[in-house]
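Example record used in the benchmark description.
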Amino acid sequence: MWNRVGRLFTIKTKFEAYLVIYGLGTGAVERGLHFMQQYPGVGGLLLFAACPVGVMMAGARILDSIEASAG
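Model output (C-alpha cells):
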C-alpha cells in the first residue's frame, strides 16, 4: 500500500522533472518579488537573484538524477 503511494511522488521522466522545475521556478520568482517589496534597493535585488539560482542548482540535480537512473 505505501509503495503505491510512494510511487506517486517519484519523478520518472524528464517531462515530469521539467514540470517540477517549472513549479519551483514560478515559486522562486514570486518569492523574489516579495523580497524586492520588503527590501528595496540592492539588498532586494540580491535576494531576488538568489531565488532562481537555487532553482537552477536544484533543477540540474534533478535532471542529473533522471539521467543517472535511466542509464
